[in-house]
């Protein structure tokens, strides 16, 4: 259209379409920035060697968190180290400062520590300890050989200085009175390389133990000392022996040490001079530096170096702080050196170790000065003992009470009448023992043997050569100043004891004459004074010496002491001869038995005198081969015998008259006891009690528990285990002794076979051994497996034999169902005995538990 007026429209200078590229550009920039932030920073760590470091696997860790990973390994520019190139997470850049430490963590085991076990699963890693925050950022570092000193150490850090390191190393433990309280974390050389410095850390809970005056000493290794007293070895724990250790102690009144303080490390306890000092007044005694002070044989201190002053020698000693309380005004120091006497060598260990100082501790107030004397103060009581003779005694020999020396023999003498006297000294602190004291000779070895056992008593070795005296307390009566031959006489002794005349009866006086000695435990206690014939027997008068007179009483038994005692039996021949006096004059012995009553009779020998028996009877349906003298035993020990065999016509039984020794009778002559015949048995099951073929059958007794009883049945087989009765129409090859089988294993046997009272069946009694009784249940099945089972037909045949024993002697087998086994059975329960087993039974495989 001509002349039309144009329409002007405004357009936006930027189209909305451009927003899409702009958003994409911003997203790309953000992604690049994130990548830059997460890309990490590469650093370089120089290691002495690269063993155990793997590119792409070995991590850098800080406080257990991975902050980087090794990317590459290369040889450093100097060719001596390995440059490890690692990329560190950007978030850990602030940790990479000058002074940051890196070290490789790998498994390590030693006597003092086990570390790095987590690397066994995750592999080796590089641990990081950041430098100070004020240090500048760095990209290249030198690795450490191990954790820096004090790494992760919690507690008080201290320092020790020593001339040499010795056997102490990093990881060595610190001990306070044996308790581990810290460890060594670093060792290094001090200024100008003249000393060794050790950095130690004390656990927080033990920081208060380290005081300003604390002293440390080395306890590494083993220290030994050899002398006549033996070998003494001083050692710490196993770890301190092999890897070193340090101990310390602190005065209680000293203030707590400052943090970071430095102490001296001494070579040992003596050099540390730990303890409390006490002054000594030694007089002219030849003391010297280092002489030990002993308490009950244990060293508790040593003498310091001796100084000379205008007033003479000045002597002091260092006492262990744990034992310082024993230095009291009442305590005494005694010079102790080798002493030779008839009793032997006293303090023989001093021959090599030299003299020592003994502390006799008595409680009291503390003292700063003690006097050293040449011998211990002796206070006590002296008394004189009368004795028959002085043989075997010597001056200086000890007096013992319950193994403890309470005094000594001061002098041996004879008075104007030729009576022997012994003067003894009893120490003051044992004076209370004298109120009821009795004394007897200390023999080196005393043996008492009887059927209850053997008792052996030995005296201390000090009395073996020089003799000695033992003291015992009497239950009644006061002290008797007499030396007795043995303890029993001492306890029975009386201050008013006089000789006693005792009469005996005997059928004849063979070997007995006036003057024949009477012995007690081998000691002559009297003699025969008269022989009188009266009433068809010989009356013998004995004069018992006053010392032994209290022993003779209602329970005393006398017997002839044979010149030659012989015994012949199946166990061999035994001959015992007396001394020459007995061979020429004969002899009589006596002793007391609490279970017997003396009757004034002189027995022919000891066995006859002490044979106390109790009679009883055994009853059986027949005599299985026992006779007069057949033994009754319990666990292989003979406790009685059969005295005779008789028939009881009224009862139709055999009666065995028997007797048991009195000391055993109470256990066996009561309800519940049993007596069983034991004799040889030969069969396919083996041979038992073969010894009875030579010695004869015997009776095995079993003790009971109940009321007294004197009549018992004699069993011909042991009644142990489970007793069952099997019923069968016929015996079918079975007999007494036939085995009872379970899975072809013998678990019992047939003990008896008999007809039923009405003759309708055979009753077979079987005995199951106790260990297998649980196999029999209410639903068990029994069948006969005697002989050979044969099944022969036109197509062939089978022959079945259970066992060789059942083939010859017969046998019974049984089994139990797998399910519904039933309850356990009791003695006397009856079962049917089947002729053969069903196929189903043979397939049963029960699992039974006792």
TrEMBL record:
A Pfam family this chain is assigned to: MlaD
Keyword Transmembrane: yes
Membrane-traversing stretches: 12-33
Compartment(s): Cell inner membrane
Entry keywords, A to Z: Cell inner membrane, Cell membrane, Membrane, Transmembrane, Transmembrane helix
Domain Mce/MlaD, chain residue ranges per copy: 40-131, 155-227, 380-435, 504-555, 616-704, 724-781
Name of the protein in question: MlaD family protein
Coarse class of the protein's main subcellular location: membrane
Entry-linked InterPro entries: Mce/MlaD, PqiA-PqiB_transport
Signal sequence region: none
Phylogenetic placement of the source organism: Bacteria, Pseudomonadati, Pseudomonadota, Gammaproteobacteria, Aeromonadales
Superkingdom assignment: Bacteria
